Amino acid sequence: MKLSKKKYGIENCYLSNHCLPEWLPAIEANKKIYEVKKGELVFKEGEPVEGIYFVYSGKLKVHKKWASDKELILRFATDGKILGHRGLSTNNTNYPISATALENSVVCYIDMNFFHCTLKVNTKFAYKLLMFFADELQESERKMRNIAHMSVKGRLAQTLISFKNQFGVNEDGSLALELSKQDVSSYIGATYETLFRILNELIEEKAIEVSKRSIKILDLAKVEDLATREI
Amino acid sequence: MKLSKKKYGIENCYLSNHCLPEWLPAIEANKKIYEVKKGELVFKEGEPVEGIYFVYSGKLKVHKKWASDKELILRFATDGKILGHRGLSTNNTNYPISATALENSVVCYIDMNFFHCTLKVNTKFAYKLLMFFADELQESERKMRNIAHMSVKGRLAQTLISFKNQFGVNEDGSLALELSKQDVSSYIGATYETLFRILNELIEEKAIEVSKRSIKILDLAKVEDLATREI
DNA sequence: CGACTTCTTGATGTAACTCAATCCCGGTGG
DNA sequence: CCACCGGGATTGAGTTACATCAAGAAGTCG
């Protein structure tokens, strides 16, 4: 991860979009823009929290380690999203999770001290962020219940629906998110092999179509049914 | 759940503890105190969000439904804690979870409109709440990973440790939280029978002692080991 | 073209769920 | 006071979904 030499504005950034206009110059003065290569780590679980990141472009995953080679992917972040906000806490000073770029990305870094100032000065932003956190918490707990009680097939169906909603589809109808099967399985909390078998089941049922790194939903009703029937 | 006739101050309440002193009269004027009987619902998943609650006394569980008879308990709330803050969100206007009293409790209700005002006026409180949400999110994601990858035994051990930290122990060393086995199993995301067997294993290993509705940790080192070894 | 991931599939193991039977205990009514 | 009842606690047996392991096929990159 290295400082970008190119100049980036502060247009497409959660922070600047919700701040007071008079605060923008301060942000401009304090931000740092980093270019992150595919596969590169933005920050790592256990490291001390130093700042917060806003995604300008690219795709990243937020994940929590497990044993030596396992992980659980908690969410994916694309442009306009926040990264590292889980480190926002006074008593816990280390990142509880890691963030890794899935493709070459550009992120905007804000020092934590300055960010805390921002929060205190921009009450509207703080309010906005609070709502964002409430949503994240809801989503997190929904996912937790699913992992606890739903079958892998149901979770996969839910994941497909949420990918569709979050990232949309390409012209050909495939999900606009290229993920390795490895990542998908880490996201739904299953092994690679299990995911593979379940994908095949769905293909046989003509519910989806898989090619290379992309997935297309053929029978949305069926997938939606699978995603909700067990709840 | 019915309005309390008794007068309650606003001392032991997350809201009043973190607000501007000059805002306290407004809170006083807007609060409603409810008495909740054991087993009674404070609010229910799916219902429209109308307000937020602060626990004065008692113990409650926050849970998410599943099928007809299953549930996942997300957390327990005792005095000083917040309830219903998951409903704090502009786009989602229904509670994503339910809250039920485990024993007779007293809660303080604040209308959501007034609460939003409070947030806008009391920036320090909003900030405090933001930190609280960050912590909740961390905890939620830690628990999610555990449910995804940890054995029931490991999760139980973690749960015992966290109960000890959150609720403390009685003079006799037993956890100061009386729960039915049903509730414990819903909290760790396992069935009643499985929990029972695992409890027995731990008893045979002389790690814990169980009587009626209380649990005592005998061998803390062992429980701590179980709680961390798989991570 | 060989080394090296990533994919695919089968075989096997097992933790945990499910269902059902029995046990235990407190309450209730005769 | 005791027999009876009901519901939670306990235990057992069977089933299943999923993980694990292993090994071959197929891309892919120098």
From TrEMBL, chains A, B:
Residues covered by the HTH crp-type domain: 150-221
CDD domains: CAP_ED
Keywords, alphabetical: DNA-binding, Transcription, Transcription regulation
Residues covered by the Cyclic nucleotide-binding domain: 34-136
Source taxon at top rank: Bacteria
PANTHER family membership: CRP FAMILY TRANSCRIPTIONAL REGULATORY PROTEIN (PTHR24567), REGULATORY PROTEIN YEIL (PTHR24567:SF26)
Protein name, entry field: Crp/Fnr family transcriptional regulator
